[in-house]
Amino acid sequence: MIKIITDSTAYAPTDFLEKHDITVIPLRYLYRDQEFIEGAPGTFGQFFDDFTKTKLFPKTSQPSLELFIEEYNKAIEKGDEVLVFTISSTVSGSNNAANLAKEQCKDPTKVTVFDSLALAQTILGYIMEAVKMRDAGKTVPEIVERIKSLQETSIITFIPDTLEYIFKGGRIGRVTAVLGSILKIRPIVTFKKGILSNKNSFGLQKAMKDLISTIPPEGKLVRIFILHIAKTTLFEQFKENVMNVLKARSDFGKFEIYEGEVGPVVATHAGPAVGLAWSSEPY
């Protein structure tokens, strides 16, 4: 059997994890001079209530090397192969920790560490694909090859409520942030294959329309996640706009649709926001 392990930034629902015997290695974050272990969707409310009031900027920390080793060894002792999905190596040390643990476990040949080059529910989409293939009897190399093909066109993209968090994260300057707020610029922040980029729109409605227009063409979408960070008040309107577009497609019903909550670690990149993540066939 193939044992799937992921770090907490996939933000997989607890019932999904339990149903498919997936283990989560949590990342940690530093906030108000305390270290916290990132939990699962549905447990972030207290953090975000405080985060959105104080605007303090948390710092993230990689997961425990020892915990990775422990979980690898448990699976190996059962005779399983291990397939590990981590947040992109370009933004976190999680992938490095997973690989160091591989070198120190009982049988490194049984462990494959996959760098998602992704954030949040993009990773979850890869895991869902891996579960589907594992349960169909596919091998680890076959699963990895399939996920690599999905990486070509799979992304996560956000519309932040404010430019403040992007400024604090060092991705724009103070002058740009101030002018952007005055001019009502709404950045669309996109993360694809390990690279963060942004494109500006003027006004919320235009930004929503521009973001939704980037959804893969008909016949290519595999699964899509409609996301929020910090339960932003924009979410219900955004979700309605997305669903109206999806329902109008000729391939509606042929791809999976989910709602998702993004947690504290990835929230440091955008602050409160709405967004989309998807897996799609190359096009």
* H and E order: EHEEEHEHEHEHHEHHEEHEHEHE
Task: Return the CATH topology of the largest domain.
Answer: Rossmann fold
Shape: globular
Just name the CATH architecture of the largest domain: 3-Layer(aba) Sandwich
Residue-averaged pLDDT: 90
- Strand numbers in spatial order across the main sheet: 10-9-8-13-11-12
User: How many runs of DSSP E, i.e. beta strands?
Assistant: 13
Summarize the structure.
This protein is α/β, with parallel strands linked by helices. It is built from 11 helices and 13 strands.
Description:
With 283 residues, this protein is an alpha/beta fold. It has two domains: 2-149, 3-Layer(aba) Sandwich (Rossmann fold); 155-280, Hypothetical Protein Tm841, Chain: A,domain 3. Helix content is 38%, strand content 27%. It is built from eleven helices and 13 strands. The chain has helices at residues 14-19, 45-54, 65-77, 94-104, 121-135, 140-151, 164-168, 174-182, 204-212, 235-247, 264-267; strands at residues 2-7, 23-25, 28-31, 34-37, 59-61, 81-86, 111-115, 155-160, 185-192, 195-202, 221-229, 256-262, 273-280. The chain is globular, with a radius of gyration of 19 Å. The two termini are 32 Å apart. Mean pLDDT is 90; it is low at 172-180.
Main features:
single chain; 283 residues; Rossmann fold; 2 domains; six-stranded mixed β-sheet; four-stranded parallel β-sheet; 11 helices
Outline the secondary-structure elements.
Layout: E1 2-7, H1 14-19, E2 23-25, E3 28-31, E4 34-37, H2 45-54, E5 59-61, H3 65-77, E6 81-86, H4 94-104, E7 111-115, H5 121-135, H6 140-151, E8 155-160, H7 164-168, H8 174-182, E9 185-192, E10 195-202, H9 204-212, E11 221-229, H10 235-247, E12 256-262, H11 264-267, E13 273-280
Parallel strand pairs: 1-2, 1-6, 6-7, 11-12
Antiparallel strand pairs: 3-4, 3-5, 8-9, 8-13, 9-10, 11-13
